[in-house]
Write a structure and sequence with these properties.
It contains eight helices and nine strands. The chain is of the alpha/beta class. The protein is globular.
């Protein structure tokens, strides 16, 4: 029925870097609509982004927070963003937003686009995206964020940091923290990376603001970004 199913982890920083970015949303919809018309199927899982951090910061100013508190604020931010995406893709999207990754197996086969969001504390939407890819047998996952590449170090702190175009999971995981925490700033969730390595999943990390690069990747052409396999 479909050429393939593509899982996209869509960073909240793209949906709402500060205010909602309607210019990006229009371009993203146009890009995905084009590939839907070409016979592709998509699962979009949304991150929380800046709105998540705003709520977390506001709560911190009022009271002491647990990791669960921080996670739940983030989870609900991802769900708000997911509802936005489902609304934007109303004509194509499955009407129910997936939160538990296991539920992806119960979605109808004719659903051309499925929107997912955060589930429970203790993990990011990166992990949920990998779990969804596992359930549907996807071999590739696209991580759209606000970085062009994964770097050898944080380029904001290390002027000698260099971009990485391709890397294996062993070396990639060595660049990441060992554990997940709600305030983690890393190119990929370390728990998700461990599972992705086990599944031999290919993950492409790229700047979602450069949607031409997403198109190139989906068309099998060279693109600006990092491939982990």
């Amino acid at each position: 029925m479909y050429k393939d199913t593509i899982v996209i982890s869509l960073g909240g920083s793209l949906i709402a870097p500060d205010d909602l970015d309607t210019t990006f949303l229009k371009k993203f919809k146009k890009t995905i609509d084009g590939f839907l018309a070409d016979g592709r199927r998509f699962v979009l899982i949304t991150g929380g982004g800046r709105i998540c951090r705003k709520y977390q910061d506001a709560a911190r100013k009022v009271t002491k927070l647990t990791d669960d508190d921080l996670d739940w604020l983030g989870i609900h931010a991802t769900r708000l963003n997911a509802h936005l995406m489902r609304t934007i893709f109303r004509d194509e999207a499955h009407p129910v937003i997936i939160t538990n990754p296991d539920e992806i197996q119960d979605t109808p086969k004719h659903a051309r686009l499925i929107v997912a969001a955060g589930y429970r504390p203790g993990a990011s939407t990166d992990l949920r995206a990998v779990q969804i890819a596992q359930h549907i047998g996807a071999s590739k996952l696209i991580n759209l964020s606000n970085i062009d590449y994964v770097y050898t170090a944080d380029p904001r702190k290390d002027k000698n940091a260099t971009p990485i175009k391709a890397i294996d999971w062993h070396d990639f995981r060595a660049l990441l923290p060992k554990d997940w925490d709600p305030g983690l700033s890393a190119p990929f969730d370390p728990v998700a990376a461990k599972l992705a390595q086990t599944l031999k999943l290919e993950v492409a990390i790229m700047n979602g603001a450069r949607l031409g690069e997403l198109t190139k990747y989906l068309e099998g052409k060279p693109f600006k970004g990092t491939v982990v396999r």
